[in-house]
Amino acid sequence: MAKKLFQNHKAALAFAGVTIFSTLMLVGTEEEGGTLHDAIDGLDQQRSEIRDQARGFSRSDEDQPGAGSPTVIPDYTVEFADDEELIDDAQGFDPNANFAPPVQEPSDFDEFIQIDPDDDPVIIDL
Q1: What number of other Cβ atoms are within 10 A of residue 32's Cβ?
Q2: What is the pTM of this model?
Q3: Which spans in the chain are helix H?
């Protein structure tokens, strides 16, 4: 299709015009912003509204009793285990063991049909 589009100079010119027009609509010019510029402005406005709402919630939390007291974090001592305690003895079932496949019991069907393309089917007992 692209080959046929550019063989006709009028179709190629129309394609270039549509591409330039679409770019101007999305990106815009220096004087006027396009659709992307409008979307960014909308996101900035939403971000500032959310920030103002969050500040309002944090101010209302400060008015509650106990909001000004600092949070006490208890001191914990961290003890590390020795390497010997972390090593597993690996006792038990070995999933990688090489076991022989299970033995299959002979089935009740010990015969099969041998078909010769020139002859009639012949049943052979095993």
Answers
A1: 9
A2: 0.35
A3: 2-7, 9-27, 35-62, 83-86
